Amino acid sequence: MISKIVKHLNWQITWYLEQYRIDKKYGIETRKREKLYLEDIDPEKSRGAEWYEPVKWKVFSEIIADLPVKLSDYIFIDVGSGKGRALVFATQYHFQRIIGVELSAQLHSVAMRNITSFEARRGQKSNIELTCCDVREFEFPAGNLIFWMYNPFFGEVMRGFLQNLAEHCAETGNEAYLCYYIPKCREQIEARGDFTPLLPGSTRNYSIYKFDHLHGRMEFADQIPGTA
Prior knowledge:
The protein has helices at residues 2-26, 43-46, 57-65, 85-90, 105-122, 155-172, 186-192, 213-222, and strands at 74-79, 98-102, 128-132, 144-150, 176-181, 195-197, 206-211.
């Protein structure tokens, strides 16, 4: 029993020190887990939201490395961007744009301070853009898209996001990838049939999906009167 407690304490200390080093390196504050911010959001919108937790660089870089594309051809979008840590990590790559979408005005405000501090630390502006809105109301930019998703939401929020994205891709012909860490809604995504898993999610704690244009166009056509 004592050995388990000691092991857990050692894990917590190691985790905290790692998060502290990341924040210190980039001049940001993202290590603290947050949950109370959900109380300040409209219950109708926060019902499908998960609480904030920072991602590790090792996890982020491993998932990005598994993407089978040229990153400079894509726009990076973090849905549920929280305090902006993944956005800062994304600046280590050559994405066309880096966009954070966050529902909580409280976390959005923290992210703005973090990005300002990060840019001051490195002495130049970044290509990070921040948006505070319900992801179901977010207007997808023109271009190929890579979405970072650290277990951000579930249920109706996930359903609405996926449907909007599928319709956008079917209409524009743009490519879209989902980098989904802690994929609690894996079954919901795969049941749709229009997002193809590129990794065996059952053996990893993350999944990568690509929008299937053939299936997506068929599904979208079925929804338009006179095309079925």
